Amino acid sequence: MTNAFESSAAGEAGQTLEMRHVDGDGLLVVLSGRWCLDRALPSRAAVEQALREDVRRLKFDATSLGAWDSGLLTFLAGVLKASAARGIEVEQDGLPEGIRRLLAMAFAVPEQKVTGRSGRDANLLARVGTATMKVFRGAPAMLRFLGEITLSFMRLLGGRARFRVSDMWLEVEQVGPRALPIVSVISFLVGLILAYLGADQLRLVGAQIFIADLVAIGMVREVGALMTGIIIAGRTGAAFAAQLGTMQVNEEIDAFKTLGISPIDFLVLPRMLALMLMVPLLTLYSGFVGMLAGLLVSVFIFDISLFEYYNETLRALELKHFWVGLSKGTVYGAMVAFAGCLRGMQCGRSAEAVGEAATSAVVTGILLITIAASVMTIVYYQLEI
Predict the structure, then answer these.
(1) What integer pLDDT is reported at residue 3 of this predicted model?
(2) C-alpha torsion sign, points 325, 326, 332, 333
(3) Are 16 and 41 in contact (CB under 8 A)?
(4) What is the pLDDT of residues 142-183, one digit of tens each?
(5) How far apart are CA 175 and CA 282, in angstroms?
């Protein structure tokens, strides 16, 4: 039985929407015509307005429905949500089977909620606790990765590591010669700072000549290796993480595993070797550039002759200082390669994850360099080296 209520609406392309009250508490929605997105569709506001009355059941009649696309699905999904919010029972028998299946699939997937930016920021203590837990949870993965690298080096020593030597030399070129400009600039400026800093204190006792000792020992033994490591962490560690992360996104690393090729041997080992070979050389180069900066400051600013500065530098430098600097450069290079490759291999499967991996590689690399520098300095001091 149909009561007196009846409403209709039409779109620009012949879509028709009619509503009729049936059986006292029911609402029948009649759909006809072509419901596609290429033209404006009727609004569901009229249906939602009708649902505000004494309606307990909602029915559909689509016997005259023509062509349809996602525009009709969006319309029906909105009507179903409005009905569910009002506790109205919906009968979908009058809809085509394809529409019913698509609606069932749409409502079967839970709505995704965006987290992070919209919620309240955690307090400082909570953030520190979360970061600490994250570090401890990541420790086993780091140890496992370290073990895989160790096994890869053992295979290399046994002549069983599978990688292309040409790839290693390509990485050597990338991390060595192409890093010379930025290493030169930073090392020169750091040497300049050391010279001025030392001169400001040494001139109080008339001992400006010892600027040569300060700059030479400082750059060759400590500062040159440290600055080179930080530069390489920002320049190369992030690049390693981005390269391996992109390969992870493109499932290239999975392809290596499928082919029976170890990604550690083929991808990580050449990068480790390249940095462990080139960072010590860059450290030595950084020390000479820093000493050149100290020479220029001493000669042109503090009236120290070139011959005096040269002799004092030779007197101050010992072979052990060079060995200390080279050893630290080797360790820093290994740390940067470890951090970059680790974060790249742990990268997720999205573009955002690649950026996060690159950022994490830089932070992890600098942190490992700082820890290694502290430990090695204490050990060398205890050994009187």
Answers:
(1) 44
(2) positive
(3) no
(4) 899 999 999 999 999 988 888 888 888 998 998 889 999 999
(5) 10
Instruction: Tell whether 91 and 47 lie within a shared domain.
Output: yes
Give the pLDDT confidence of 62-118 residue by residue, as tens digits: 888 888 888 888 888 888 888 888 888 888 888 888 888 888 888 776 555 544 444
The whole-angstrom separation of Cα 46 and Cα 79 is 10
Using DSSP, state whether 61 is helix, strand or coil. strand
Residue type, 56: R
Domain residue limits at 222: 124-382
The residue type at 265: D
Q: Given strand 2-10, what is the order of strands in its sheet?
A: 2-10, 16-22, 26-35, 57-68, 89-91
pTM comes to 0.68
Residue 116, in any domain of the structure: no
Residue range 244-264, pLDDT digits in tens: 999 998 889 888 888 888 899
- Round to whole Å and give the CA distance between 345 and 350: 13
Sole residue written with tokens 């490759």? 341
* Contacts made by residues 96-103, CB under 8 angstroms, sequence distance 24+: 96/62, 96/65, 99/62, 99/68, 99/72, 99/73, 102/73, 103/73, 103/76, 103/77
Which has the closest alpha carbon to 309: 202, 191, 176, 210? 210
Q: How many CB atoms lie within 10 A of CB 3?
A: 11
Residues 131 and 104 in one domain: no
Choose the weakest-confidence range: 23-27, 123-127, 256-260. 23-27
Looking up residue 64, the CATH number of its domain turns out to be: 3.30.750.24
pLDDT for 272-324, tens place per residue? Answer: 999 999 999 999 999 999 999 999 988 888 888 888 888 988 998 888 999 99
Q: What share of the chain is helix, strand, coil (3-state, %, to 5)?
A: 70, 10, 20
> 3 by DSSP, 3-state: which?
strand
